[in-house]
Amino acid sequence: MKASRLKNPFEAKHSDKKEKPLSYFLQLISSFKKQRQTFNTLLQETSKQENDGLIASYNIALLVAKSWKSHTIGETLLRPIIEEVLSTVMYEKPDNIIKKIPFGNNTISRCIDEMASDIKHQLTNILRRSKFSIQADESTVVDNQ
């Protein structure tokens, strides 16, 4: 765009800033960039915390599946144990951390089912990509002539 076309709207809408030096506008740009970085950092940290809770939930589901225990053990046993460890050893309130980790029966069951399905999918993909042969031995039974 031409400078003359930018000058008229600027003077009409921002007449109070018309006499400001260039350094003022450069400072505005740098403060805006800092605010945007702070906002992006905040979003990334929040996303990371949510992902950490999800990863912890899957790890707990894996441990429950390996132990062959009931899926409700997460709610009845693991939640109180984790709360006690966090409050006693870490001196933190466990409420904020526990809220991010789902322990429910349905959640644990769904996580186990998803992991089993993923393992089956990975195994079938490996078998499809690899070359192998099956040898069948033929034998004749004397009674079935």
From TrEMBL:
UniProt protein name: Uncharacterized protein
